[in-house]
Amino acid sequence: MIARDGSYRPSGVTREGTELSLVYIGSSGCAPSNREDLPGALEQLKRLLRQRAEAGARGFSAVGIARDWDTQDGLAHLRKFGAFDEVMAGRNWMNAGVRRYVWEEIPGEAATPQVLLVERVVGDVSASGIQYGVHGERLVARKVGADEILKWTEQGAPLPALGWVQSAAAAAP
Fold first, then answer.
1. Interatomic CA distance for residues 47 and 41, integer angstroms
2. pTM for the complete prediction?
3. In what helix (H) or strand (E) does residue 124 lie, and over which residues does it extend?
4. What is the domain-level CATH number for residue 108?
5. In what order do the strands lie in the sheet with 86-89?
6. pLDDT at residue 129, rounded to an integer
7. CA-to-CA distance for 132 and 120, rounded, in angstroms?
8. How far apart (Å, rounded) are the C-alpha atoms in residues 40 and 171?
């Protein structure tokens, strides 16, 4: 959903199937993460990538991760970037989101700011039919540094051809 002022707003629903997720990783103590032109670029990316996701019959989410020791400093930093569907702040480089998107599942450069676009499947992953989860997550794009993020945004966030991750329903026997 886009608010009256044109800003990104979370949809408030989780739809099963393939989803594109924009992940921002920044820090209140990082000068490039605090450039004046970065919040507007991230807002533009959220709107643009949501439109692309919806045009491709995918869900969309925006995730904000603050690599700050102090959670309140991290949350204040993320607020400068508008609305997110999910946020994580605190524990510096041991933050759960940083561990996932820098060190473990989708490893990359340990630097801020950065944005990732991941494609994944959201849906039922249990035999009982009552447990939602995320699986099949894969990196579509990663832009590291304010200059690279701004350039990508100015270019209209070009993407490689997006393959469809097999949906949870299609994967069931």
1. 10
2. 0.88
3. strand 114-124
4. 3.40.30
5. 86-89, 59-66, 17-26, 114-124, 132-144
6. 62
7. 13
8. 39
The counts of H helices and E strands in the chain are 5, 5
Report if residue 1 sits inside a domain. Answer: no
Per-residue pLDDT of the chain (173 residues; tens, 9 = 90+): 566 787 899 988 777 889 999 999 999 999 999 999 999 999 999 999 999 998 988 899 999 999 999 999 999 999 999 999 999 999 999 999 999 999 999 999 999 999 999 999 888 666 666 667 887 899 999 999 999 999 999 999 998 876 644 333 333 33
Give residues with Cβ within 8 angstroms of 130, minimum separation 6.
Answer: 124
The residues that bridge with 59 in the sheet, in sequence order, are 19
Tokens of 119: 């494609």
Boundaries of domain holding 131 = 23-171
Integer Cα distance of 26 and 109 in angstroms:
13
Domain count, the chain: 1
Kindly state whether residue 10 falls inside one of the protein's structural domains.
Answer: no
Residue 100 belongs to some domain of the structure: yes
Whether residue 132 lies inside any domain: the answer is yes
